[in-house]
Design brief:
Blueprint (H helix, E strand, L loop, with lengths): L1 E2 L6 E2 L21 H8 L5 H13 L6 H9 L5 H15 L14
Antiparallel strand pairs: 1-2
Helix pairs in contact: 1-2, 2-4, 3-4
The structure holds zinc ion (ZN).
């Protein structure tokens, strides 16, 4: 089973066109892994979202910050996702010695 790259609906096939929206199920060729993980932040499967949160944290991808803040501030998707997002958010927004995030606004 694959979730559609365009509409996130489950399909019982791993490639070809989505049964729901008609777009290709798979992401465009050569889509960077980080973009796939950013996509997965909206995944219907909560475990997949949490995996994406952790992957983006491990790769210090600050493009995830806005979504992570939303998971923390509005934890309707559950405490596990909120906790993972809070942890990664801390890692991404605490300035390191050679990190350019010092200008990030607080509060
Ligand atoms: Zn679709």
């Amino acid at each position: 089973m694959a979730y559609c790259w365009y509409c996130y609906q489950p399909n019982d096939h791993d490639d070809g066109d989505c049964d729901v929206c008609g777009h290709p199920v798979l992401p465009p060729p050569a889509t960077p892994a980080a973009d796939i993980e950013l996509w997965a932040l909206s995944h219907p499967d909560l475990d997949r979202r949490i995996a994406a949160v952790r992957w983006l944290g491990d790769h210090h991808d600050t493009r995830a910050v806005q979504a992570l803040r939303q998971f923390v501030e509005d934890p309707v998707l559950g405490p596990d996702l909120a906790a993972a997002a809070a942890q990664v958010l801390t890692e991404l927004t605490v300035p390191g010695p050679d990190c350019g995030l010092r200008s990030a606004r607080r509060g």
